[in-house]
Specification:
Helix content of chain A: 40-55%
Radius of gyration of chain A: 21 Å
Distance between the termini of chain B: 43 Å
CATH architecture of the largest domain in chain B: Roll
Protein name (chain A): Peptidase M14 domain-containing protein
Number of helices of chain B: 3
Shape of chain B: globular
Family (chain A): Belongs to the peptidase M14 family.
Distance between the termini of chain A: 34 Å
Strand order of the largest sheet of chain B: 1-2-3-4-5
Keywords (chain A): Carboxypeptidase, Hydrolase, Metal-binding, Metalloprotease, Protease, Signal, Zinc
Strand order of the largest sheet of chain A: 1-2-4-3-5-8-6-7
CATH class of the largest domain in chain B: Alpha Beta
Largest sheet of chain A: 8 strands, mixed
Cofactor (chain A): Zn(2+)
Strand content of chain B: 35-45%
Strand content of chain A: 5-15%
Oligomer: heterodimer
Largest interface: A-B, 38 and 34 residues
Number of strands of chain B: 10
GO molecular function (chain A): metallocarboxypeptidase activity; zinc ion binding
Number of strands of chain A: 8
Order of helices and strands of chain B: EHEEEEHEHEEEE
Order of helices and strands of chain A: HHEEEHHEHHEEHEHHEHH
Largest sheet of chain B: 5 strands, antiparallel
Chain lengths: ~350, ~230
Amino acid sequence: MLFSVGLSLVVLLSVVGAATVERVEYDYYKYHPMPEITDWMVQAVKNYPEVVTIMEYGQTYEKRTISLLKIGVNTGEKKKAIWMDCGIHAREWISPAFCQYFVREILQAYKTDPKMQAMMTNMDFYVTPVLNIDGYIHSWKDNTTRLWRKNRSPGPLNCTCYGTDLNRNFNANWGTLGVSLECCNNTFCGIKPVSEPEAQAVTYFVGNRREDFLCFLTIHSYGQLLLVPFGNPNFTASNYDELMKVGKGAADAIRSVHGKDYTVGTSPDVLYAFSGSSRDWARMQGIPLTYTFELRDDGTFGFELPQDQIQPTCEEAYSGALHIITYAHDKTFSGATATTAATLWSMLLALGVTGTTLM
Amino acid sequence: MATGELNPNHYQAQRAAKVVQHYLNTRYGSPYRLLGLHRVHSGNAEDVEDSGRKYQLEISVQEIISNTTEKCSAEVLFPRGGQQRSPQVQASCEEHLKINTTAQEEALYQQYKMNQSLLSAQNLPDSYGHIDPDMKPFWHLCIVASSFIMLNESSENTLYNMAQVANITQLATENDQLKFDCHVLLHEMVSQEIIHWKLLFTWSPPEGVKVQQMEQLPHCHHCEKPPNTN
């Protein structure tokens, strides 16, 4: 019997070994153009078919498909959810890099960490690596386009400029503060709320499932900030104290990784007042924990964060995001449910459903 | 407008402190000394009759290359209306920003003073955030020169950083000063705009950076290629 166990072990190891040798490791510490990100998404599903699916939920102005990765254990039941979007502003390249890193981390943790296993059983993660695909592609075009911010829809009549600022276009006190009505400006909020197809995609997808979402995280750069709603200084979120407490916990988690300080507060307090943000819209939908992450740095490199800072930035941001997500999960799921999740996990293990391949 | 004691993490103190950073760079910046705002410890704002608003700040600045930090006390006066727009700054730092860069600066100065072919570089940093190590001192120089503009252009409603050097070209040495033409892209945080400026400046170790000319460039939003700048 020992012999057959030993033989099984050898077979298992060689299967794992073969899988690792075959697969070309994706470099999470370089910036990737859109086609590589799309391929990476497809590969994620191939590597973790039991927990990862791609969902297409909209189209950009230039008719590109907007997709997200839905990550979670399929329990056959309606589940609570976490939302994360990256790349709403084209030039903030560290943002899509973070979404990709985040996906890799939760999938790795899922293999070995009971806590993540429980969270993935109780919740689904919806991660959009690049929301403003047209803008992101435009920022890769050449040296003169690198600092593009908006989407690529044409301006209204009589306007020769392109683009609406997607983070001013959401239906959250739209067009009232911190926006420009000049179509050439970088904070142009569009001709009306949710005029932009990218904003529409998020609005419909999240809006149709709004009771499911515990958490809405939208990732930007730069500034090293964790921003809580609302963008209007006259409106205070009903759970402002909770948002600040959890935000500060996240900032502490971030600081413990590489010593970087992230400031926590409302946009009007720590940055500037503005309306029409996706975060404000999400909070107004009733999603309790909504945050805007402004990642590194503090202005030295700004949008052009060196690639050698991708890893530390992602590591600290992951710590911060995980703090918020864990809080959201633990608040919702009592100890009893966690036990159920663990039992389900054991069942799945026994059925041999777990993936052994690396991404 | 917030008056009295300020929350050091809120935008009022942070914007005023950034102005101090720009001021310190105009005074002390060099190819091997560049200052960044590290932290605001405390701040106070008050209205000064007929003048404007005065901020008093206790901050820490970090010298980016040596990674040393030191404390500074500063006052920033944002003028109210009238002709003069630029803030006025006074600052004193503990160690008087005494980081010894003399040898490196002298070596760089001699190297480029004698250079047969004049320096020319584009896109510092590049799209991936990369700067050639040989070009870093010139990236620093353009940041220092930009600091004159950023200081001049700052108000309580702005926050400036230099986003990129589009182009730096060395011109013939003039009166023992290295001379440069720099096209910079400034990022203004509140409007989120990228503003193009062209700068003519000189530098030598004893004289520091002196800006001769600065000119804002109109940026063509809808153009596929930017207008040629020489």
